[in-house]
Amino acid sequence: MNLHVIELINNSFIVADVEDLDEEPSCYLKNCREILDDGEITLRKWPRYTDEVDTLIHSNRIVTISEPSEEITALYKKSINS
Prior knowledge:
Layout: E1 3-8, E2 13-20, E3 27-37, E4 41-45, E5 55-57, E6 62-66, H1 70-80
Antiparallel strand pairs: 1-2, 1-6, 2-3, 3-4, 3-5
């Protein structure tokens, strides 16, 4: 698993298993979850309003890609296994 936190240009943070692609769209995101922080960090299925769990995203929508913290990694693994 190649787990990363992705900050999007709309200020959303997504955690997903990321596969880099050679052409646009440049990222294939598997088992995507949006990170929500309302005083407590939770994960929500992303993209919303669809049954799909994987998506492609263009590089011009991404601000940063980072390694997740241990807390996010644990929440993510729990989320995808439930």
